[in-house]
Design goal:
alpha+beta
Length: about 220
């Protein structure tokens, strides 16, 4: 390991290096190196240079392999909610830091599908490990299909629910058992908030949660 102050001294003109026969300037510069540059022994406190290099890891919810030696090798828990707003995920308070890290890291590519059935299905599965299957049926009741139905002949607007869909969710038994600290109705509340966040604003829906593989029951809300 090089002597403290060497890095900065070597950057000075030769006249300064040659005149520092007693090493006073080198020792003075060593104090600045300890603050500005990385710790040669890999121990805290880290230098400003090393902390600047680690800034990308603060925006990495799952961590950055290049900064594993630092105490903040991934987004700190206290920073996760703010980072979630950066990716436009507003219902972040519903999730633990561990869950939120996974959501933040994977939600941005989904926005290309926003407003579609596929987006809502993938969003729900991303947010809830308890969910094993999501089925969205836009024709569950009206059976009205543009280009196929004739108004007044085989369909009536008066009996239909425009901009409405049914969403059926099957809960995975094993994953739900692992999270039994919260009752089924608490899961239903959180699922509803995510649906309201992800669905088109002008639509309405009916939600069915199937717990038949968990407790022998199913309820519609």
């Amino acid at each position: 390991m090089s002597e403290a102050g060497t890095r900065m001294l070597d950057s000075l003109p030769a006249i300064y290096r040659a005149s520092d026969s007693a090493g006073y300037l080198r020792r003075l510069l060593g104090a600045f190196e300890e603050i500005l540059f990385y710790n040669q022994e890999g121990k805290e406190p880290f230098g400003i240079e090393q902390q600047i290099d680690a800034i990308p890891s603060l925006f990495s919810p799952l961590g950055d392999e290049n900064t594993r030696q630092l105490s903040y090798m991934q987004t700190p828990d206290r920073f996760l909610s703010w980072l979630a707003t950066w990716v436009a995920f507003t219902p972040h308070e519903l999730f633990s830091p561990e869950q939120l890290r996974k959501i933040i890291s994977r939600i941005t590519p989904l926005y290309a599908k926003r407003g579609t059935r596929l987006y809502l299905e993938e969003l729900l599965k991303l947010c809830f490990e308890e969910i094993s299957e999501v089925k969205i049926d836009e024709d569950a009741e009206s059976k009205f299909k543009i280009g196929h139905c004739r108004v007044g002949v085989d369909t009536l607007f008066g009996d239909e629910r425009p901009f409405w869909f049914h969403i059926g969710i099957t809960v995975n038994q094993q994953n739900f058992d692992n999270k039994m600290e919260k009752p089924p109705h608490e899961l239903e509340r959180r699922v509803r908030e995510i649906i309201d966040f992800g669905k088109p604003g002008h639509t309405a829906y009916e939600l069915s949660l199937d717990f038949s593989k968990v407790d022998g029951g199913r309820f519609i809300v």
